Amino acid sequence: MRANLDNLQALRGVACLAVVLYHLGQWESGFGLKRPLFGVFRWFGYAGVDLFFVISGFIIAHSNRNRLGQPRALPTYLFRRFWRLYPLYWIAFALGTALMAYPCGMDVRALEWRGNAITWFGLWPGVHTIMPHAWTLAFELLFYLAFASLFLLPIRAGVGLLALWGVVVLAVSISGYQSPNRFVHTATLPYVLEFLAGAALAWVYHRNRTDHYRPALALAFAWAAVAGLLVNKSDSHWLVITPGPRILVFGLPAVLLVYSLVAAEAHGRWRMPGWTKTLGNASYSIYLMHMPVGAAMLTLTGGWSHRKWNHVGWSGLMLFACVGSGLLLYRLAEKPLMDLVKPKSAPSRRPSRWPRLFRSFATR
Question: How many CB atoms lie within 10 A of CB 269?
């Protein structure tokens, strides 16, 4: 099995772009246009998040498969997850706060920083005023911590524990119960099933069961189309905030899509375009920056005319700003941060002691 899956990285780029287009469609809906350019993405673009969740589950299981059941590997795992998730988020949070203050005009000093600081900076479940899309990162953190149990327990016991978690989530979802505790509530939402399905998919992949990628791809699109029509309502927003039906419509297609593309790559087929991999490399940065930058651009273009060609220009500018800011953050911050913990084939001429020790701990 391949250590690096190009199609999976490219699929992250597609998922990220879908979320950006969804939010552009949401912002565009406020102009009352008869033929909005991004209107169609309001009906399914948010499913990029569901695809992200499946991909995350797959990547965590795929990249750590040889360390499971080894408690001594847990500190390195936790450090790498911390380093992947938090430093870039804190940088984006600082930039987002600045953009909310100017040009958006939000009085950020009036926000309840004392009561919300742990939630905002720790990515705990809750309302994220500055970075509202950070709710998805709370699920990422939850799954990272849950997966850590596989390092401390025998593999079968850990897998059984994750399977039991999935059963509990199904039972809670069917019953309609909602815990008043925000942590328990988050841990029992159906989104958890997408992470678990992605992790299970990695097991299937490493069992070399990769021959059915063509029917899997066909079933993914057929299921999404038919299920989407069956639950269709005049309000494109209701499925976004209704996790159960949302998982039924887009969760299974996301699993099938991930399987079909990684299985096809294992057979040397269906290579995704290079530009999608470029977006995939920067997908975390793009995801973090697109909403605060989009909000700032909405303020700056408040007097923009939205007649036909003027609106086309506005749309191109918004898309360029949302994606371009993420690519810039990736180049200036994310890539240098990741390079700090990347194994080096040869030391530099005069390496300092701290980076050498840092990389040794992070990559051993």
Answer: 13
What is d(CA 134, CA 125) in angstroms, rounded to the nearest whole number? 9
User: Does a structural domain hold residue 356?
Assistant: no
Rounded CA separation 350/142 (Å): 40
Do the domain assignments include residue 1?
no
At 48, is the secondary structure helix, strand, or coil?
A: helix
Which residue segment(s) compose the domain that 239 sits in? Answer: 6-335
pLDDT in tens, 141-157: 999 999 999 999 998 89
Residue with tokens 């919300």: 116
Question: In angstroms, how far is the first alpha carbon of the chain from the final one?
Answer: 21
Closest CA to 220 of 189, 186, 197, 188: 197
Tokens of 59: 């990547």
The DSSP H or E segment spanning 143 is: helix 135-147
Classify residue 305: in a domain, yes or no.
yes
CA distance linking residue 33 with residue 258, whole number of Å: 35
φ/ψ (deg, to 5) at 238: -65, -35
Q: DSSP characters for 279-348?
A: HHHTHHHHHHHHHHHHHHHHHHTTT---SHHHHHHHHHHHHHHHHHHHHHHIIIIIHHHHHHTSPPSS--
Among residues 333, 329, 359, 334, the alpha carbon closest in space to that of 347 is found at 359
The tally of domains found in the chain comes to 1
Is residue 362 in a domain? no
> If pLDDT is split at 50, 70 and 90, which confidence band does 234 have?
confident
| Dihedral angle sign, alpha carbons of residues 118, 92, 142, 78 | negative
| Inter-CA distances, 58 with 250, 334, 339, Å | 17, 22, 23
d(CA 240, CA 244): 10
By the 8 A CB rule, do 48 and 74 touch?
no
Global confidence as pTM: 0.92
